[in-house]
Write a structure and sequence with these properties.
- By secondary structure, the chain is mainly alpha-helical.
- The chain has a domain of about 30 residues.
- About 30% of the residues lie in helices and about 5% in strands.
- It is built from two helices and two strands.
- The chain has a two-stranded antiparallel sheet.
- A hairpin with a 6-residue loop joins strand 1 and strand 2.
- The longest helix has 23 residues.
- The protein is rod-shaped, with a radius of gyration of 46 Å.
- About 0% of the residues are buried.
Length: about 150
């Protein structure tokens, strides 16, 4: 029965090298001899200045699920807000006229029908100004110029 030769591990190539060898036969790197091997290695009776946490709960992430970006909303057509503003302001003015200009709870309006064309001519510039200053469609995404 032959006794197996003790070997050490090369730190560079992980080859098994005889314990007495100073250089690795595979990669040629210098292997320093460790001064303490086996049972003659010194033991230390003091604890390190830090402690490894044990029996603690793992830290859970703040947001366990990824947060999805908000869904883009479709821009509201400017006609709906414009119609709401016009009808709201008309009803408000009508209620003020009813309150301040009524006699015994009745409001009677008399219009001269011979001036209808004045009101028609006055309505055209108002419609034109409203149409001109109405906001256009929302800006589209910029496109890259073709090269």
């Amino acid at each position: 029965m032959t006794k197996e030769e003790k070997k050490k591990l090369c730190w560079s190539c992980d080859g098994r090298v005889p314990r007495e060898a100073e250089n690795c036969p595979y990669c040629g790197v210098y292997l320093s001899n460790t001064p303490y091997e086996g049972e003659s290695a010194p033991t230390f009776d003091w604890d390190p200045p830090y402690k490894i946490p044990q029996d603690e709960e793992p830290i859970s992430p703040e947001h366990p699920k990824p947060i999805a970006p908000p869904k883009p909303t479709k821009p509201i057509s400017p006609v709906i807000p414009l119609a709401a503003l016009i009808s709201g302001s008309t009803f408000f003015l009508f209620s003020l006229i009813l309150y301040f200009c009524s006699t015994e709870g009745t409001l009677t309006l008399k219009w001269d029908s011979h001036t209808w064309y004045v009101w028609l001519l006055l309505s055209f510039p108002l419609f034109g100004a409203g149409w001109y200053y109405l906001p256009s469609s929302p800006p589209s995404e910029p496109t890259s110029p073709s090269q």
